[in-house]
């Protein structure tokens, strides 16, 4: 824990009003006691008036108690206010020593959690800018380069070669479109707190349609595909849930090698719906599995089929908005199983 010294130019809130209040309370208390002693206890007028002499002593006692109390408060609040000033100046490394905060320990801990979260968010945004810039730069460079090459030397290029270059341009353009779409969708679901526009629909039929939509990719890699879903009706936002199934199936196809296996199962339980997406792909280690749903997270060991770290974040957020849960079971080279639980 780093402790920050008080800035000489930094002025704390003054507590003069507290001493004024102390004076009023002490004088009022002594006078009230004098009146009670005079009229109820029969004490003489002179004796009652002589009690006023204890006012200075009481003022000193109360003043000293107030002074030391306020000095302790000012010291603790000073650390907190200086920490807030540091954060406002952009220093997110500030951490307050909660061990010496005593009754303010919970406030100090809350401040430390806040700065840690701000630091994490800043790091995520920086990573996002770097990754996003890289993801955009690569296809744009390819599109620009091949298009310019076709313009300059198009007359002498044989038809198969021309088609290959045009296919690259088309693929990279599609990649940009998907990246933009996913980024906008992630921003949308993160800003959303409650899912609206819900309706009852056939969830099993929706999963089947998503599988048919991606069937060309499955057939291209000659993947053995199995679909085992119960007839399930579900109340939710069809558009958002469709994004969940497409992202999960796309993810399974991406990391499953040729002649691999993918299985989707959906079962209606007594109090929830259980959906599983299993594949025989490259799998992942425990560290990767622990971070797989974080925004923009990518792992170097799977760079050959690298994504943009957005798809599973979208899935996790939508499932969370639905009040459900998602987890992954995986081992390297043994495939992965994503398990989704949706409340009924």
Please explain how this structure is put together.
The protein has about 350 residues and is of the alpha+beta class. The chain folds into three domains: about 15-95, no CATH class; about 125-190, Orthogonal Bundle (Helix Hairpins), CATH 1.10.287; about 200-344, Heat Shock Protein 90, CATH 3.30.565.10. Helix content is about 60%, strand content about 15%. The protein has helices spanning about 15-40, 45-50, 55-90, 105-155, 160-190, 205-215, 215-220, 240-255, 285-290, 310-320, and strands spanning about 200, 225-230, 235, 260-270, 270-280, 325-330, 335-344. A five-stranded mixed β-sheet has the order 2-4-5-7-6, with helices on one face. A two-stranded antiparallel sheet has the order 1-3. β4 (about 260-270) and β5 (about 270-280) form a beta hairpin. α4 packs antiparallel against α5, α5 packs parallel to α10 (about 310-320) and α6 packs across α8 (about 240-255). The two termini are about 45 Å apart.
Write the layout of secondary structure elements.
Blueprint: H1 16-39, H2 45-50, H3 54-88, H4 105-153, H5 159-191, E1 199-202, H6 203-213, H7 215-220, E2 224-229, E3 233-236, H8 238-255, E4 261-268, E5 272-279, H9 286-291, H10 311-321, E6 325-330, E7 336-343
Parallel strand pairs: 2-4
Antiparallel strand pairs: 1-3, 4-5, 5-7, 6-7
Helix pairs in contact: 1-3, 4-5, 5-10, 6-8, 8-10
Keywords:
3 domains, two-stranded antiparallel sheet, 7 strands, 10 helices, disordered N terminus, 344 residues, Helix Hairpins, Heat Shock Protein 90, 5-stranded mixed beta sheet, alpha+beta
């Amino acid at each position: 824990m780093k402790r920050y010294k008080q800035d000489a130019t930094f002025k704390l809130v003054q507590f003069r009003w507290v001493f004024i209040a102390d004076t009023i309370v002490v004088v009022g208390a002594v006078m009230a006691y004098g009146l009670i002693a005079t009229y109820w206890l029969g004490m003489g007028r002179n004796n009652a008036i002589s009690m006023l002499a204890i006012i200075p002593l009481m003022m000193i006692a109360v003043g000293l108690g107030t002074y030391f109390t306020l000095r302790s408060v000012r010291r603790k609040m000073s650390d907190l206010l200086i920490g807030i000033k540091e954060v406002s100046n952009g220093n997110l490394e500030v951490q307050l020593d909660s061990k010496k905060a005593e009754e303010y320990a919970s406030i100090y801990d809350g401040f430390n959690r806040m700065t840690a979260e701000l630091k994490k968010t800043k790091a995520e945004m920086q990573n996002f800018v770097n990754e996003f810039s890289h993801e955009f730069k690569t296809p744009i460079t390819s599109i620009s380069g091949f298009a310019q090459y076709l313009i300059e030397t198009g007359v002498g290029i044989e038809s198969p070669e021309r088609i290959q270059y045009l296919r690259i341009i088309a693929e990279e353009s599609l990649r940009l479109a998907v990246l933009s779409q996913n980024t906008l969708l992630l921003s949308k679901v993160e800003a959303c707190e409650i899912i609206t526009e819900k309706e009852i629909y056939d969830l099993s039929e929706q999963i089947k349609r998503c599988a048919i939509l991606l069937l060309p990719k499955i057939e291209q890699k000659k993947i053995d595909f199995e679909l085992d879903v119960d007839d399930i009706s579900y109340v939710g936002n069809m558009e958002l849930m469709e994004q969940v199934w497409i992202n999960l199936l796309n993810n399974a196809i991406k990391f499953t090698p040729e002649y691999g296996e993918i299985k989707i199962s959906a079962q209606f339980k007594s109090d929830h719906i259980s959906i599983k997406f299993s594949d025989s792909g490259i799998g992942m280690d425990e560290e990767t599995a622990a971070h797989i749903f974080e925004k923009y997270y990518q792992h170097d060991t799977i760079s050959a089929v690298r994504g943009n770290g957005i798809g599973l974040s979208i899935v996790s957020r939508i499932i969370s908005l639905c009040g459900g849960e998602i987890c992954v079971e995986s081992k390297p080279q043994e495939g992965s199983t994503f398990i989704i639980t949706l409340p009924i």
